[in-house]
Amino acid sequence: MAMTWMISAFASALGISVGGGIAWIMKGLQHGFSFIYSLCAGFIVGLLFLEMIPENVELGGFVNLVLGVSVGVILFQYIHQLMDKVTIITASHQKDIFVRSGVLLTFSIAIHNFPVGIALGPTLGTEMGELLLTTLVLHNIPEGIIIFTPLFLAGFGILTYVFITTIITFPIALGTLLGQIFNIGSPSLLAFMINLSIAIIFMVAIKEIFGEAVRNSSLLYSFLIGIFGFGVMYLYLNSL
Fold first, then answer.
1. Where are the alpha helices (DSSP H) in the chain?
2. Digit-coded pLDDT (tens) for 30-39
3. Considering only 39-43, 151-155, 180-184, 199-203, which range has the smallest mean pLDDT?
4. Is 100 within 8 Å of 83 (Cβ atoms)?
5. Rounded distance, CA 5 to CA 116, Å?
6. Are 154 and 221 in contact (CB under 8 A)?
7. Confidence (pTM)
């Protein structure tokens, strides 16, 4: 049993780490953060609408999606206001946006990974479990990209890379352990938790990331780069 949660943790960390490596390369190649932020927003929206939302509607239904997203939007607004009131991060407004986006994305992906771990727990050791592990690695790569891109642009380095990977990995390891011990499998509850994370991720993508890109370039430029990012995510997901 100890091995199962370690296996799921390793799979999650591997995908997140690869995504973080790609984010680091993109940071070095980018010619202005408006491009990379617009691209990242396209990645996020593509991941949500092409993968996470359709799968979650199938899991919990449309009503569950509406309810979970509504609560998630309220939760995002509360966290956003709280960070505005109590957090003075840097002397740069742009870096503040980067850090806040990275923190909110980390929080929302962590929420998302917990029910994924619960669903994974009972299947490990089976053919289905092996398939889910492979899927977990591949799908955590774009999550690593969208989490680490703003943090790297804010100037964070290897220690943050390790710390955030640990934070993201812990919920899926815990969920795997609990899922195996208690065989937790309420589709409605799992779907609701994932819908919370979907709402937060979407709000971060549009309000924080895409909004900041538009403010520093133009709506047309940001939209076109975002569409390109969406297309890249479409090709990636359809190649899995």
1. 2-29, 33-47, 53-60, 62-86, 93-120, 127-153, 158-182, 187-203, 211-215, 219-238
2. 556 678 778 8
3. 180-184
4. yes
5. 12
6. no
7. 0.73
